[in-house]
Write a structure and sequence with these properties.
alpha/beta, seven-stranded mixed beta sheet, four-stranded mixed beta sheet, globular, binds 2-acetamido-2-deoxy-beta-D-glucopyranose, membrane
């Protein structure tokens, strides 16, 4: 039996290099120019000539998830008819980091699972309805590289209905901005791995080895978030490399080691204060993504084994499976912080549903320092498998389907 200490040590060893590699990707991620030749939709043909003709979004009763239904409780159902919702080849905005099949992953079952809540059905994701809801609006994903995956998923989910020349992706570090001209809508990504300010805020020049968080500073980021209609926050994995973290609080000159739990709580408090003095709850919608689980140790779901997520082809079948990577203390802090908030923030509690998906990480089919893993590296999954990030198409698409369901549900409130 491993002691807690050695578990932590092991986690630190295995988390560090992986996160470091994948975070470096941003530095090298080129802007993939839109080379899409495929199906031109003519939906735009009519709407472009009549910009003023604003179709109201009609939310059918069956598309409105009811309060009684907890959409985060359910099961993964095999569905190779409707899923995946897009193909790697058809989405020019995907970076190589996530296109597992293109990168040589031999199995593709991981793309064919639908999330089925126990109490209701998720509405069918309709890109045009989303665009109508986003007309003249900005939606922003804020967080680390996992959040960037969700941002890319969202773009891929909608981009096929937008003709060429009417969509664009700009990179203005630390942001990426996807614009849909016809709808004057933008979907944006903002790099802020701790939400509050830190020395890791440079979009490309940062490392997890040196972290220092300013627990009471958020203004530099916050000014870019002001007035954004839909804000989707996330921050977890960068906190979790060590039980202690260097941080300042009170005085910008006094750096101290803090327990991560204490630091996380203080950071969320700073975030909450920012929200309370900057958000107009009637016109702005705020979401928070709960932690994205990792699958670093196969003994957690397969006792006796000593691997990781590599070569896993099926979801975990054990009801309420929960790995040690998803820290319950952090979850509790998140819960309490949201309770205390004076404005409504919707918690997207995607941890449990993603916990089942040991099969859906990039594993050895991603990049390292902007290059696909070499044959030698692939042959050594114990050192090189990335069991933190997710393949696309994949799990983040489902997070976005649920986000879409909430946007439909709230539509009357924020339109
Ligand atoms: C879909 O899955 C079913 C059941 O596993 C299988 O029989 C069928 O061949 C699959 N279809 C495709 C297109 O992969
Ligand atoms: C375009 O959207 C922005 C908000 O994202 C809004 O401020 C602006 O007024 C819109 N432009 C038009 C022409 O409606
Ligand atoms: C990255 O940042 C460090 C300090 O934060 C600095 O010393 C170094 O020159 C930077 N590197 C580049 C390539 O900008
Ligand atoms: C905090 O910073 C000091 C000085 O740079 C360093 O020695 C220490 O290891 C850091 N602590 C953590 C938890 O990173
Ligand atoms: C930090 O955590 C340790 C161990 O969990 C605990 O003993 C200590 O009191 C904590 N310190 C603070 C300042 O919360
Ligand atoms: C992957 O798992 C299958 C069985 O599930 C096994 O036959 C195969 O040898 C494994 N591949 C590697 C490279 O470990
Ligand atoms: C999220 O869901 C899990 C169960 O799936 C639960 O244990 C946890 O408390 C929830 N988190 C919050 C913040 O409500
Ligand atoms: C938050 O939302 C609930 C129900 O959606 C509503 O009853 C409540 O008034 C809202 N609170 C605030 C502070 O807006």
């Amino acid at each position: 039996m491993l002691s807690f200490k050695s578990l932590i040590d092991r986690r630190i060893q295995s988390l560090f290099p992986i996160v470091l590699y994948s975070i470096l990707i941003l530095a090298l991620a080129r802007l993939v120019l839109d080379s899409l030749k495929s199906k031109q939709s003519n939906v735009f043909g009519s709407s472009s000539s009549s910009r003023r003709n604003r179709l109201p979004v009609v939310v059918l009763p069956e598309d409105r998830i009811e309060d009684y239904c907890n959409v985060f409780e359910g099961t993964w159902v095999w569905d190779n008819v409707s899923y995946p919702l897009y193909q790697e080849q058809s989405c020019p905005f995907l970076v190589k980091q996530t296109t597992c099949n293109n990168n040589g992953r031999p199995d593709s079952f991981y793309k064919n699972w639908r999330w089925q809540p126990h109490g209701c059905n998720l509405p069918r994701f309709d890109p045009l309805t989303l665009l109508h809801m986003l007309r003249d609006k900005r939606m922003m994903f804020i967080g680390d590289s996992l959040q960037r995956g969700q941002f890319e998923s969202m773009i891929c989910l909608i981009q096929s209905v937008i003709p060429e020349g009417k969509k664009s992706l700009q990179r203005i570090p630390p942001m990426k901005i996807f614009k849909v001209e016809e709808f004057n809508a933008s979907i944006e990504y903002y790099w802020a791995p701790f939400i509050v300010e830190s020395i890791s805020d440079h979009a490309t020049n940062h490392t997890v080895h040196k972290r220092m968080v300013m627990l009471d500073s958020i203004a530099k980021h916050g000014k870019h978030w002001q007035g954004v209609d839909i804000l989707v926050f996330e921050s977890y994995v960068w906190w979790m490399h060590d039980p202690l973290i260097n941080a300042t609080y009170g005085s910008p000159y006094k750096v101290q080691e803090y327990n991560v739990t204490t630091a996380y709580k203080l950071a969320l408090k700073t975030w909450a204060n920012w929200l309370e003095s900057n958000i107009h709850p009637i016109t702005q919608n705020v979401f928070f993504m709960s932690m994205s689980p990792t699958h670093l140790w196969s003994w957690e779901w397969n006792p006796g084994s000593d691997e990781n997520c590599f070569n896993e082809s099926y979801p975990i079948n054990q009801r309420s499976y929960w790995g040690t990577g998803s820290n319950l203390e952090i979850m509790k802090i998140l819960h309490d912080s949201l309770q205390e908030l004076k404005i409504n923030v919707t918690l997207m509690n995607i941890t449990q549903l993603s916990e089942y998906r040991k099969d859906a990480h990039t594993s050895v089919y991603g990049e390292r320092k902007g290059k696909l893993l070499t044959k030698e590296q692939r042959a050594d999954p114990k050192s090189f498998a990335d069991c933190i990030h997710w393949c696309l198409p994949g799990v983040p698409d489902v997070w976005n389907e649920i986000l879409y369901a909430y946007l439909l549900k709230n539509y009357q409130n924020f339109s």
